[in-house]
UniProtKB/TrEMBL annotation:
Residues 101-144 form the TRAF-type domain. It comes from Baryphthengus martii. Signal peptide: none annotated. GO terms for biological process: regulation of canonical NF-kappaB signal transduction. This is RNF41 ligase. Gene3D superfamilies: Zinc/RING finger domain, C3HC4 (zinc finger). Keywords: Coiled coil, Ligase, Metal-binding, Zinc, Zinc-finger. SMART domains: RING (SM00184).
């Protein structure tokens, strides 16, 4: 939809009116046949039609182009009243700058910034409303440190609120202690399994060393027995030599 033509000061050229809504062009596009439309209007029209609403020539979204520069300049120079005129704003400015003005206009209706409040208030009166809004928040005057809404003043109980927070903190602390306990048990269990595995490996190594020691002792005894046998044979040979 375009800008309401009744908001404009003075004469508005027919070529600057949307061929669909008949208001002054807003975010305009132009067809190859040179008829101009508001972007929203022509897009909505082409959902159900495939021709120009003025001369019925075939058009497609891909064929739409921005308005000619000279027409765009003429459009931007048009003077119009602020949309908040009914609330008291007397500003008249060019179409090119109207959006910027209306975003900052003191007569614009804006929502209260307090959560839960549904009041729409003029921007110029917002500070006054915030000072008395029943949804405004402030710190508890009794010193408990809680932020409360004015509407909850009669229901606020410092002791109950602090007790609730203490219970929450206690529950959170218990959960953290349990988590730390489980984590420590898990680590100890892991270390215990590792130690058991290592002990088993060491035990196997000890048994293997014992086996090697046993074989070594057996070899030593065999060598000692062979040495005694050899000595006896030498002694016998010596006796025979003497006899001869």
């Amino acid at each position: 939809m375009g800008y309401d033509i009744d908001r404009f000061v003075g004469y508005v050229n027919e070529g600057l009116l949307c061929s669909i809504c008949r208001d002054v062009l807003e975010d305009p596009l132009q067809a190859p046949c040179e008829h101009a439309f508001c972007t929203a209007c022509i897009h909505g029209w082409l959902v159900h039609h495939s021709n120009c609403p003025e001369d019925r020539q075939m058009i497609d979204v891909a064929l739409l182009r921005p308005l000619y520069r000279y027409m765009k300049n003429d459009l931007n120079r048009l003077q119009l009243h602020c949309k908040n005129r009914e609330y008291g704003c007397e500003m008249v400015c060019s179409l090119e700058s109207i959006d910027r003005h209306e975003r900052e206009c003191e007569y614009s209706q804006i929502p209260c910034s307090n959560a839960g409040c549904t009041v729409q208030i003029e921007r110029r009166n917002l500070d006054g409303h915030l000072a008395v809004c029943e949804y405004r928040s402030r710190e508890c005057p009794n010193g408990c440190g809680y932020t409360i809404l004015s509407a909850e003043d009669t229901q606020h109980n410092c002791v109950a609120e602090l007790r609730t927070e203490l219970e929450l903190l206690r529950s959170e602390m218990i959960c953290r202690v349990e988590e730390a306990k489980h984590e420590m048990e898990s680590r100890l269990d892991s270390q215990r399994r590792h130690m058991v595995q290592k002990e088993s490996i060491l035990q196997n190594e000890i048994e293997e060393l014992k086996s090697q020691m046993s074989r070594l002792m057996s070899d030593v005894r065999s060598l000692m027995a062979a040495e005694r046998q050899h000595r006896q044979e030498l002694e016998q040979a010596e006796l025979e030599k003497r006899e001869l």
